What we know:
- The chain is globular.
- It folds into two domains: 5-16 and 87-213, 3-Layer(aba) Sandwich (Rossmann fold); 19-81, Transcription Termination Factor Rho, Rna-binding Domain, Chain A, Domain 1, CATH 1.10.720.
- A six-stranded parallel sheet has the order 3-2-1-4-5-6, with helices on both faces.
- The chain has helices spanning 17-38, 50-59, 65-81, 92-101, 114-122, 147-157, 171-179, 206-213; strands spanning 5-8, 105-109, 135-137, 164-168, 183-187, 201-203.
- It contains eight helices and six strands; from the N terminus they run βααααβαβαβαββα.
- It is an alpha/beta fold.
- Helix 1 (17-38) packs across helix 3 (65-81) and helix 3 (65-81) runs parallel beside helix 5.
- Helix 7 links the parallel strand 4 and strand 5 (183-187).
Amino acid sequence: xxxxxxxxxxxxxxxxxxxxxxxxxxxxxxxxxxxxxxxxxxxxxxxxxxxxxxxxxxxxxxxxxxxxxxxxxxxxxxxxxxxxxxxxxxxxxxxxxxxxxxxxxxxxxxxxxxxxxxxxxxxxxxxxxxxxxxxxxxxxxxxxxxxxxxxxxxxxxxxxxxxxxxxxxxxxxxxxxxxxxxxxxxxxxxxxxxxxxxxxxxxxxxxxxxxxxxxxxx
Length: 218
């Protein structure tokens, strides 16, 4: 069935993994001590010792909502000052624009906070893409490796699961989406060294994905 809507992951799907680990994480880490010293309200969800806890979560790349919220707050300054410009794979912006023009409903689901997602898509080298998406979801809707999260998103956007295509580079996330009845496709980006799944459709980029699923393509 041709999908009526697309739900996309970010890291490794629309955005190079290297950008997240080479730019975003170091930027937040370098400013974390000052953020903790500020006593920001977002720290209320972080147990003591707060700095050590946050840095430990970062070292283990934990998908903890409080950490993702704080990282997003720190990144906001970097985007605002121009120190950070989001990187997307070259095929992504034109594909998203084509799909939106064709009437496909576009959504984002990432472990990064919703504000961080909007900052990323709002400050790309291809311009502000936030208006292409109808809704954004983070781990407040549930973990990305649990089928219930995808079922909740499908209900929330009023799209039958079988008409919603989920894009990710992570097989475990695709498994969870499939269990909820969604269509799935794994992005196997050569520069990221992603191992191709044997259980899901795969594509090297958004153009190949579009051809496989009957979507507008370049």
